[in-house]
Specification:
Layout (H helix, E strand, L loop, with lengths): L1 H27 L4 E6 L5 H11 L6 H6 L3 E6 L3 E6 L10 H10 L1 H5 L2 E7 L5 H14 L7 E6 L10 E4 L5 E5 L8 H12 L3 E8 L1 H14 L2 E6 L5 E8 H10 L8 E2 L2
Parallel strand pairs: 1-3, 1-4, 4-5, 5-7
Antiparallel strand pairs: 2-3, 6-7, 8-10, 8-11, 9-10
Helix pairs in contact: 2-7
The protein binds guanosine-5'-triphosphate and magnesium ion (MG).
């Protein structure tokens, strides 16, 4: 058993490395990644197939062969996006598994949007949502934007496919059936609305006490256009990233980043 665990962990490591390379290439091309996450058996893989057959990409073969859990989709007003299927989450994930998950689920952390798929017909619906939320927290993906997918409406009495919106009119949930295909087009509509945000570009002049940390953060996000250390230890850095990512980062940094913006 111990040997098997070792072998599996080694393979996970290799997968993580390959995915890392893929992510880099995609980030360079500024292609948003949409990750399907959710409790095991929620219907993620079924939905993955549904969505990708609806948005087929002719030249996708090679891509699909390289990694069957990643597919290209075309979203109106957004262009190409990558859809990623992931392993199902479970309650009480053992701690050593969390570590293994962390490697493979980096995709989740760095996704532009998470589609949290739930089985709407499961009586433990809210428990499952909570369990997934806490795993997302554990793998440090809690602040990635999320869209809830209420799946399996074919098993409910009287549930119509629809988009549910928050107070500001932003889609927060889509009611669908991956099995029957009802509501799949609505997912594309919601993707357009959630992803078609604009890119922003900023030039920042960061003081030495912030420069190092922010520099590695920007590198991680792969949004650096140019960077240069000045004689006084300040870092002059140009970044280009989706507006939503910028806002998220600003918030995370206690809203102080804006103070360091300088004009080009
Ligand atoms: N009734 C109904 N069943 C569905 C629907 N979507 C998926 N299923 C069924 O739910 C079961 C699980 O589906 P999967 O797509 O494998 O679920 P998953 O979330 O990928 O599961 P894991 O990969 O194990 O986490 C299968 O038996 C599917 O046929 C749906 O919309 N309606
Ligand atoms: Mg699956």
């Amino acid at each position: 058993m111990r040997d098997r665990v070792k072998a599996i962990l080694r393979r996970l490591d290799k997968v993580a490395k390959q995915r890392e390379q893929g992510r880099r290439a995609r980030a360079r091309a500024e292609v948003p990644t949409v990750s399907l996450v959710g409790y095991t058996n929620a219907g993620k893989s079924t939905l993955f197939n549904r969505i990708t057959e609806a948005g087929v990409y002719a030249a996708d073969q090679l891509f699909a062969t390289l990694d069957p859990t990643l597919r290209r989709i075309e979203v109106e007003d957004v262009g190409t996006a990558i859809l990623a299927d992931t392993v199902g989450f479970i309650r009480h994930l053992p701690h050593d598994l969390v570590a293994a998950f962390k490697a493979t689920l980096q995709e989740t952390q760095e996704a532009s949007l998470l589609l949290h798929v739930v089985d709407a017909s499961d009586e433990r619906l809210s428990d499952n949502i909570e369990a997934v939320d806490s795993v997302l927290e554990e793998i440090e993906a809690a602040d990635v934007p999320r869209l809830l997918i209420m799946n399996k409406i074919d098993s409910l009495d009287q549930a119509e496919p629809r988009i549910e919106r928050d107070d500001e009119g932003v889609p927060k949930a889509v009611w669908v059936s991956a099995l029957s295909g009802q509501g799949i087009a609505l997912i594309f509509d919601a993707l357009t609305e959630r992803l078609a945000g604009t890119m922003v570009r900023h030039r920042l002049r960061l003081p030495p006490n912030l420069a190092g940390r922010m520099q590695s953060k920007f590198h991680q996000m792969r949004c650096i256009v140019s960077e240069e250390y000045q004689d006084d230890g300040h870092l002059l850095v140009d970044v280009r990233l989706p507006q939503t990512d910028w806002h998220r980062l600003e918030k995370r940094e206690g809203n102080q980043l804006g103070d360091f913006i300088v004009s080009e």
